[in-house]
Amino acid sequence: MLKKKQVLAVVGIAVISCLVGTMFNAMATDTGGNPWDKVWTTMSEFQTKVDSLNATIAELEARVSELESQPTTGFLSEPAYDSGWVYSDGYIITLNHNLGTNKVFVYLIGRDDSGLISHSGYGNDLQWSSLSTTHIDVFGRYDKKYVRVMIWKISELPT
After folding, report:
1. Neighbours of 88 (CB within 10 A)
2. What is the dihedral of CA 120, 126, 129, 132, to 10 degrees?
3. pLDDT reported for residue 158
4. Quick one: which of 96, 97, 85 has its CA closest to 126?
5. What is the per-residue burial (b if ≥16 Cβ within 10 Å, else e) of 123-145?
6. Are strands 146-153 and 81-82 parallel, antiparallel or unpaired?
7. I need a labelling partner for 127 at 20 to 30 A (CA). Which of 94, 117, 141, 157 fits?
8. Helix (H, G, I), strand (E, B), or coil: what is residue 147?
9. Which long-range contacts does 121-129 make (Cβ < 8 Å, 24+ apart)?
10. Judging by beta carbons within 10 Å of its beta carbon (0-12, 13-18, 19+), is residue 95 exposed, middle or buried?
11. CA dist., res. 103 & res. 109, Å (int)
């Protein structure tokens, strides 16, 4: 036989269940469907967005790893071509870089017998011309007996 407290508990649960059911039924009538369907749909949309964000983060991490693995010296990568010190003594010399492109950044350095170094653009003592996909002509004034040519390829930026 059931005791009074047990009966009250069972009746209380039945009443609460009836009220919750009535509330959900009223909500379903107002919104046109089961409210739990909307919760699951919203959670599914949220999970799709989270998955997309995780994929984007993974792609960015892969690109950062790729960039970090590339050898660099300072803030520039090593040049695609470096002539080393070449004797000039005031004459035009032709250097073969064989880079296959003329989309490049050229940097010239001159040096005299005492070891004094000057850079292109300071006093016009170093010049280059006739840049092609395979060679470059350079000129160092007679007092700049040695020249050094460094060339970096310029690539298109990724979109």
Report:
1. 21
2. -60
3. 65
4. 85
5. eebbebeeeeeeebebbbbeebb
6. antiparallel
7. 157
8. strand
9. 129/92
10. middle
11. 20
| Residues ≥6 apart with Cβ < 8 Å to 86 | 93, 95, 138, 146, 147, 148, 149
122, 73 in Cβ contact below 8 A? no
Name the pTM for this structure.
0.51
Q: Please give the pLDDT value at position 144.
A: 67
pLDDT, averaged per 10 consecutive residues of the chain (159 residues), comes to: 68 76 65 66 83 90 83 75 86 90 88 75 70 88 78 78
The beta-strand segments (E) located in 100-145 are: 104-111, 117-119, 126-129, 135-140
The whole-number pLDDT of residue 11 equals 73
Is the Cβ–Cβ distance between 109 and 148 less than 8 Å? yes
SS3 1: coil
**d(C-alpha 122, C-alpha 124), whole Å:** 6
Q: Given the structure tokens 């280059």, which residue do they identify?
A: 128
Q: Determine the residue type at 87.
A: Y
